[in-house]
Amino acid sequence: MDCPSCGSSNDAGRKFCAACGARLLVACASCGTVNSPGARFCGECGAGLSAAPAPARDERLIAASGVDVSRSTPGAPAANRGSGAERRLVSVLFADLVGFTAIADDRDPEAVRELLTRYFDLCREVIARYGGSVEKFIGDA
User: What are phi and psi of 45, to 5 degrees?
Assistant: First the structure.
């Protein structure tokens, strides 16, 4: 499959381009069906595909989680729609800076702040590249 962003050729079944990291498959926000990146409408349900595609629903992960996602789908009973509540399948990243205390003890506070700022900026960049967003960075919690 050719990448829509950089044009490089990728192996079949890849979700992201090996050269630039762009998303190769577009998931329908309505039904979760995977479509090709050039598609404007879902081949399964006909819903319009947005420019910023939703991540594909992995039915195996949903089943393993034991979470009932039927209430957040467009065909859910009227009693569950419009309540303002929304149920989503999310991935959460927890990371630890191993040895940070030892590093910080030997450095000037401004240098530590600059190091952390560069680290947080890089984290945000990589997470955004794969369609994610950062809720917050916290210290030793």
Answer: -115, -10
